[in-house]
Amino acid sequence: xxxxxxxxxxxxxxxxxxxxxxxxxxxxxxxxxxxxxxxxxxxxxxxxxxxxxxxxxxxxxxxxxxxxxxxxxxxxxxxxxxxxxxxxxxxxxxxxxxxxxxxxxxxxxxxxxxxxxxxxxxxxxxxxxxxxxxxxxxxxxxxxxxxx
Length: 148
What we know:
Blueprint (H helix, E strand, L loop, with lengths): L10 E8 L5 E7 L2 E7 L7 E3 L9 E10 L5 E8 L2 E4 L2 E5 L3 E3 L2 H9 L7 E3 L1 H6 L3 E3 L4 E5 L5
Parallel strand pairs: 3-10, 4-9
Antiparallel strand pairs: 1-2, 1-12, 2-3, 2-7, 4-10, 5-6, 6-9, 7-8, 11-12
């Protein structure tokens, strides 16, 4: 089957890689600094590891909010300010990421001899950018006409 997004002028092709646990991971720039993000269609909100907030020049604001993750562990998040997510020279999104403690996630990746991730790209970005994941080509297509 032909991929309708591969040759579309309104799409940007972002290469991904599979982790050993079959998660998709992509390399981006967050506030002009290299960042590794896991692509998670089941995550409602995109987030960044709160321990990396200073490195990415993210400013936390507001109170800690309870979040429901896939596991039993209670998570708390804080909104951030001043963030722009890029792939190469394309600004993907300007938003306030949620800052969460990703120690459990990164510990699970370390057990599989994977590198830590800096954050998760969730449904908030994927939906707004009309994302398509091509598992055969291992890439993420985003609709460039919906750039902010």
